[in-house]
Structures are given as structure tokens and as C-alpha cells.
Amino acid sequence: MKAPDDKIDFAKAKLTFDKIYDPTTDIAGRLKDIDGMAQTIRTMAGPSAPSRLRLIMLRKYIYDAGTWNDNRPFQYDLSDPFGHKPANRLLSNYLVTHRGNCVSMPILFVALAQRLGLNATLSTAPNHMFVKYMDDVTGKTINLETTSGAYPARDVYIRQNMPMTDQAIANGIYMKTLSKKEALAVMADIVLDREFADRHYQKAWDVAEVLQPYYPNNLAVLLAPSNAALGLIQEEYLSKYPTKADIPPQLLDRFNLLEQTVPGALNHAYALGWRETDGDERPPAAEDANGPQ
């Protein structure tokens, strides 16, 4: 996370975070796979190909069946479209199965785009992630929906499919063109998931504090203190003491701190525009099947 932006490798970073979740992750092997994919796309585009042609060939490689992907196009996994199962968000899983979700699909896309010299990064919507592509011809930033062919989707269209407040957008919780380090902080959400899944609530809280400076309004980081405090209250107090009056006096200060943290973190997120009802569990499809040419 401390590397300068021009030294950040999206693929290596994602695989490094994935290895924390799954120690069997073969970082070197998967990087070799991704490098090979990028080289194939360069060959498909031809020497000195302009950026738009490289983008077209990147789409073709991922979504069209052909010898380049062993006639196995990468597809949206409708059995877990949001990647609710953390194992399905692993990049290595997507590379092997060719079935991804709204986490693994945009991350592979930006990793390959980076190797092809395309200016792309991540952005978020409620329960969703997509790609922001900066077109060097028009100078415009375009949303690319990687769960639907990596074709464009306007801001208004995404918002219609995944409701969110103007305030949340203004404060960078959603729809932000993330810097490389902010994108890395979002990729690191899987580390938080690992700690919460293992009921390592204090570790999860600590991880969130490490990530916070890189992208303070990352929703997972904003909500982590509340979720961690709830877990710690259950683990350290409610499972042992029937009522608050039963808690030993020497433990009350910590209990009170945890108890205050829950609404404190939620209220902070709420003040920034987050709502529990954000999104409606329907990732947006692309609007325009033609896309930028």
C-alpha cells in the first residue's frame, strides 16, 4: 500500500490480499497467467494498436469464445452474482472457472487494462463494483459494466438500478473514480471478510484502521468498527453475563466503549449518505451493446 502509484500492480495486489484469505493462492502462477493473457491480447490487437482497439480486443478476449480463451469465455456467475461467498471473489477462482461476479470481473479487467497501457480503475455502487475507463481520445471517463460485456453504463442508469443518495456520491462512498491506492483499499475488503468470518473481531477492526487512511470513505471500512464492536460485545459480554448489571465493574469501561462504537460508526456512515437500503440487489447491465469504438 505504500508503493508509489506508478509501481502498483493491480493483479499482484489483489492476489496478495487473496492469499491472506486463502493461503494456497499461487501468486506467481496466477501472475504468469495474467501476463500471458495480456500478451495474447496485444497480439490480437496488433503492433502499435490505438487504445480503443486494445480495449475492443480486451473485451473480445474475455467475453467472446475463441482459441484465445480455449473457447471458454468468461461469464457472469448467476449463482452468486454479488460474490457473497468470499471464495468466489478470489481472482484465482475466476481465472480457473471463468465464472465471476461483480468483484472478480472488474478486478481482472483493470488488471489486464493496466498491462495493456489502458487507463482504467475501479469504482463502487451499492453491493457492486465496476470499471471507470478514461478514454484518451475524448478525455471522458466512461463506466464499463464488466458483468455485461464491459460496455458502457451511464451514471443515471446505474443509479436507477442501484439507488443511492446524492450525498453518498458527493462524499465518495459510491461512483468515485478511485485512485490506485483507493482501489487497492477496496480490493483489501476480502481481508476484512476473512477476519470477520473467523470471528477475529479485534483484528478486523485493526485491519480497517490500517486501510482507513488510503480510502476513508470505503463503506466496508466505515462499517467495520460497528460490526467488530457488535461481535466483541457478544463474545466478551453477552455470552457470559445475562445483563449489564452482571458485568464486573472493571470491565464496564470497555463494554461502554464498544457499546458507543456501534451507533457512532453507523451514524458517521449515515451522515456521509449511506443508507441500509442502498441498492436493490440488481447489478446494472450495460446500456449500449456497441460501446465506444
Explain how this protein is built.
By secondary structure, this protein is of the alpha+beta class. It has two domains: 175 residues, C8orf32 fold (Roll), CATH 3.10.620; 86 residues, no CATH class. It has twelve helices and six strands. The strands form two sheets. A four-stranded antiparallel β-sheet has the order 3-4-5-6, sandwiched between helices. A two-stranded parallel sheet has the order 1-2. Helix 1 runs antiparallel to helix 2, helix 2 packs across helix 5 and helix 10 runs antiparallel to helix 11.
In short:
This protein is of the alpha+beta class. The chain has 12 helices and 6 strands.
Point out poorly predicted stretches. 289-293
Residue share in β-strands = 5-15%
Shape: elongated
How many domain regions? 2
Distance between the termini: 34 Å
What's the helix-strand series?
HHHEHEHEEEEHHHHHHH
State the helical fraction.
40-55%
**Could you please say which CATH topology of the largest domain applies here?**
C8orf32 fold
Structural class: alpha+beta
Q: How many beta-strand segments?
A: 6
Biggest sheet character: 4 strands, antiparallel
Strand order of the largest sheet: 3-4-5-6
**Count of helix runs:** 12
Mean pLDDT: 93
Rg for CA atoms: 21 Å
Q: From the coordinates shown, what is the CATH architecture of the largest domain?
A: Roll
CATH C-level name of the largest domain: Alpha Beta
